[in-house]
Amino acid sequence: MNPVIALDCEMVGSGNRSILAKVSVVDDECRALLNWFVKPTEIVTDYRSSVHGITARDLEGGQSFDTVQRYVAELLKGRILVGHSLDFDLEVLNLPHPEHNKRDFAKIPTFMKNGLPRSLKDLAREHLNKNIQEGHHDSLEDARTCMELYKKFYRQW
Asked: Sorted alphabetically, which SUPFAM superfamilies does this protein's record hold (predicted)?
């Protein structure tokens, strides 16, 4: 079993909350282990399509939240989880993960500016010479970018 995976989620709005719309998980070779749309568990009041391009039609054909949650929980077991602002992703999945097994680029001082997290887009441009999130955010692209960053800097952990 590969000990490291990267995760990213896209969310839609339901009232004043964010709910899961898409989840992507990649292995250490940036191969997609999971790249699923998720059926909403509540009424969507803001699709946020301008951010990630996800529409009502995408979610209609999605997996059930319970299926996604169970599958991601299995993928997480015993693994190091890489990402950017992982607490938001884990919160929307309603899943715990041990702090000592998280590698979150939004929390590592080396990757911050003036004590604040830098965007994944900025980190990708600076450290990977790669342009991401041009047009829309894509959770698969973001998960892959986090894994590439991790592979470049894993010795810092």
From this structure: Ribonuclease H-like (SSF53098)
Q: For residue 74, give both structure tokens.
A: 């299995």
Other CB atoms closer than 10 Å to residue 149's CB: what's the count? Answer: 23
Give the span between the Cα atoms of 62 and 69, in whole angstroms.
13
**pLDDT at site 1:** 58
**Look-up: residue for tokens 């800097």?**
153
Q: Name 127's bridge partners.
A: none
Query: What pTM, to 2 d.p., does this model score?
Result: 0.93
**Phi, psi values for residue 16, rounded to 5°:** -100, 15
The residue to which tokens 């301008």 are assigned: 50
- Interval 69-78: pLDDT, tens: 999 999 999 9
Q: What pairs with residue 113 in β-bridges?
A: 116
Residue 50 has pLDDT above 80, yes or no: no
